[in-house]
Amino acid sequence: MARPKLPLVLSAEQKSELRRLIQGPSTPQKMVRRARIALLAAEGQDNRQIAAVLDTSHVTVGHWRQRVLDLGLAGLQDAPKSGRPPRLPSAKVQIALQEVVRPPKGRARWSCRSMARHSGLSRSSVQRLWAANDLKPHRTRTFKLSNDPQFEAKFWDIVGLYLSPPTQAVVLCCDEKSQCQALERTQPGLPLGRGHIATRTHDYYRHGTVTLFAALNYLNGKILAERALRHRHQEWLKFLKTIEAAVPPEAAVHLILDNYATHKHPAVKRWLAKRPRFHLHFTPTGASWLNLVERFFRDLSQDVVLPGSFSSVNELVAAIGAYLETRNLKPQRYQWRAEGEVILKKIQRARNALARQTPIVKYTSETVH
To answer: Cα 219 from chain centroid?
Structure first.
């Protein structure tokens, strides 16, 4: 008989962190496996059951179970390995690690070579130190924190719609992809082949733009789309009529929209007031990432619009139409899987960090004069 194992008990926060690691697109696979071991162990499964599920050995499972028992989630990290002790001067190491967050005068960031000259270390030593401490001055991430005073209410309204769609209803994520440019490359590019990557010229001719109105059906993944030459409330109203004709009359229509003025035009409001089966859900200001149709627009841009070369707007429209027709034959559904509480905590941490970096200055008459 197998030796009895100590039960592994994890808090709700620890389980949430493990799920975040498992679902993270940049999480190393070894960390994903260790997180899965910890979650399954917390559910009461023994080592051999977990090993069979994850296609690994029960020895490996037992090792990481014990590490989490002893050290908590920190035990998922690799233990320090023996080897030659570091020989870098500690003062130089501190310069490379502490001053990396303070760019040199006249420059936006440090590079490995400039920091090596500044600290007196070699370039490879600086690179290893930064990698070991997860410092990446060469990378930046864009962000936008919503200042909508009703952010949380709107957030839960839309997330609740994703997690528990109403019955006898259609949930449509709607938006407009405006200014789709028909760009023609000045020279034909070389196709992908063995030993070389595909190429395209950096310069191009502009042949006009087109606007694409799209409604992503959250329940089945199909796309209802319509092109327009302009981006006004008239075109949006025409698209609403297309939606009305496409949805069965007995079904309610829930539209997820952003706060663009076109969606709130008086003529649009009058039209909607006569059709009570239409229900509008607006994303918070500066939070269009809540609208899953943006995910489709990303795929459309990467698969059709950006890599293509089009000699006219009609050629671009034909390419988009062919893409939509093929996609709707085997629609891909985008499902909302993120936990709302985790997102809100992450946003709050970002707000707190931003508040520490940029203190709010209140202007008064004394300040001005």
So the answer is: 20
What's at 81, amino acid-wise?
K
DSSP for 60-113, please give it.
Answer: HHHHHHHHHHHHGGGGGSPPPPP-SPP-S-HHHHHHHHHGGGSPPTT-SS--HH
pTM, 2 dp: 0.67
205: which residues sit within 8 A by CB, 6+ positions away? 183, 184, 186
Helix (H, G, I), strand (E, B) or coil at 239: helix
Q: pLDDT value at position 316?
A: 92
Backbone φ and ψ for 153, nearest 5 degrees, come out as -65, -45
Q: What is the pLDDT of residues 65-123, one digit of tens each?
A: 999 998 888 889 888 777 777 688 888 999 999 989 888 888 889 999 999 999 999 99
Q: What are phi and psi of 223, to 5 degrees?
A: -115, 125
- 211 has which bridge partners? 228
Tokens describing residue 243: 């939606």
